[in-house]
Amino acid sequence: MELSRVTLLLFLTSPLGLAVAENVDSNIVCDPPFRDIGRHCLVIDTSIIGTWDSVRQFCRNLGGELVNMHDANILHDIFSFIKENPILDSESYWIGAYDILDEGKWVWSYNNTHVRMNTPLWGVQSGHQEPTGGVYENCAMLNKDYHYYVFDDNCDQPNAVICASTKKMAEAQPEEEEKDNTPRRECPSPFIMIGNVCLLVDALKENPWSEQQMICSALGGHMARIEDANDLGDLYDYLIANDVRMDLWMGGSDLRMEDDWVWENNAKVPMGTPFWGQETRGMQEPAGGLYENCLSLSSVDFFYFHDDECQRMKGVVCQYDI
Ligand SMILES: *[C@@H]1O[C@H](CO)[C@@H](O)[C@H](O)[C@H]1NC(C)=O
Fold this sequence. Notes:
Mannose-Binding Protein A, Chain A; 8-stranded mixed β-sheet; 7-stranded mixed β-sheet; 7 helices; 17 strands; binds 2-acetamido-2-deoxy-beta-D-glucopyranose
């Protein structure tokens, strides 16, 4: 197979392939054929279709590895890039997670670390959250039919590939440590730290969206603004651990302008995967058009974002800025 030749062709014909980094802060330099996608050096390739093992070897030959998602936000970067490049919006892609060694224990292929389960990475099919294939499906892919959420699949199935530069993965570690030095104000009671965010989940008093907005503000906070996928995962884990079974309002809405989803401070709500869920016909949320203008975490859809009618009675997640 002449794998590398096809890859190079793809990159020479892509408009962004030769772009030079103008702003040092927002771009990184990647060794071709890897390119900067959301500050990660990736190859997203639909011309290479193969089994999980064969495309993993393809990545290794490029000096990479099937993409790992220790940071769940990389899925948002990949999803956005695929949607901006319709030519890529046609295949499912193998990624570097598998449970071949120990059934049910999903690990990342780069350093065998634990894969976060459930929301925000894993997709939902017929009311069940992946992985659902048991011993028959031991490799992970981004499923084109389910908005590129993570699914388990039979490792011998043919899928396209997303590789990440191993060099960049090794460099990624020091950055994390710097972040933790920033001094923080305390998270005041009744708020509590859930992951990195100071939140209050009220699943006792159900109210319409605007009333919940006033309640959060009376507590010195605002309705929750979750724009980091890892924070959504931490919130999901908290809700499950505390047996919360109701929908919860968050601070997003498109009340001011249809389809323009913003938080209360007018910052954009991240759209698509891995934040928004799926409605019953299979469309990605938000799907309620003019009738559903407020953002809720949907309990039946594993607390992914859904739009809903603002008058509906729901609990709330409030946030206190620290
Ligand atoms: C595994 O690799 C990821 C990505 O480089 C890194 O963030 C993480 O700290 C590594 N974990 C261990 C235990 O080496």
